[in-house]
């Protein structure tokens, strides 16, 4: 499924709508999610936005899917003048990344920034993780990240120095083994891109946003994280979005090949 909207607005703070660069953001399935927050922030900064979601994943999680979310998100981006495309994409399928890029290029043009906020996340530890779950986590969190970056590198056609890759990671592995382990692999893949795509002038960074409650936290976890945070609060999607916005800006070019802890000082 895709949806499209188109409005005129200056890009990068100047010029016409034709000047707006295009960001592809994965994992934008719910209005309260980090991906949606990033999409809105980049749209406000002058980016057009293509985004992916995968409703069957939300359906099997405790929070459930959010009917009409892609339309609401697309409308919020259009209010900032962004053209948008929403694509249902099963990133466990190794053919999906190439198909996503094909669709985005056909509908909107070439991608300048790739922001990966998708994930597979099912709580389980060393003793109760199944092989099937372990493999799915690595397929979505690690393999799909590699394949998306590979497509981005193969197709990148924007001005040297403007290309951006940002991935969202986590160090939560205890009691969350397949998620944390596969996110660790995501880190390494992303940071390798900073060097292997240097000839394109593309920067690549990973962000660990710390505890951000987008509807998944039990009350006990919320309270424990708040007590442990020096600022006495949880992270918000906007906290992460502001950092992604800076990394994707021209001013953010010198930040490259970094794993950035954006967690309010939580240890």
UniProtKB/TrEMBL annotation:
InterPro entries documented for this protein: NAD(P)-bd_dom_sf, Sc_DH/Rdtase_CS, SDR_fam
Similarity annotation: Belongs to the short-chain dehydrogenases/reductases (SDR) family.
Protein name: SDR family oxidoreductase
Keywords: Oxidoreductase
Keyword Transferase recorded: no
């Amino acid at each position: 499924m895709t949806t499209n909207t188109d409005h005129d607005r200056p890009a990068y703070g100047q010029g016409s709508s034709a000047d707006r660069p295009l960001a592809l953001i994965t994992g934008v399935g719910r209005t309260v999610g980090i991906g949606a927050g990033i999409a809105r922030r980049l749209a406000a900064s002058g980016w057009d936005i293509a985004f992916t979601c995968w409703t069957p994943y939300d359906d099997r999680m405790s929070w459930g899917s959010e009917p009409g979310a892609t339309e609401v998100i697309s409308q919020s981006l259009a209010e900032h003048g962004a053209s948008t495309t929403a694509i249902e994409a099963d990133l466990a399928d190794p053919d999906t990344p190439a198909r996503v890029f094909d669709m985005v290029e056909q509908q909107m043009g070439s991608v300048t920034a790739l922001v990966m906020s998708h994930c597979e996340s099912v709580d389980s530890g060393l003793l109760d993780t199944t092989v099937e779950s372990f493999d799915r986590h690595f397929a979505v969190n690690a393999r799909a990240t590699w394949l998306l970056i590979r497509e981005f590198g193969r197709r990148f056609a924007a001005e040297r120095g403007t290309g951006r890759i940002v991935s969202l990671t986590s160090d939560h592995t205890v009691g969350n083994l397949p998620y944390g382990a596969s996110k660790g692999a995501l880190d390494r893949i992303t940071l390798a891109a900073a060097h292997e795509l240097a000839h394109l002038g593309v920067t690549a960074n990973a962000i660990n946003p710390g505890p951000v409650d987008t509807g998944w936290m039990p009350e006990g976890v919320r309270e424990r994280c708040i007590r442990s945070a020096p600022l006495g609060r949880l992270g918000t999607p906007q906290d992460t979005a502001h950092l992604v916005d800076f990394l994707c800006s021209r001013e953010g070019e010198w930040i490259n090949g970094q794993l950035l802890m954006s967690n309010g000082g939580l240890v």
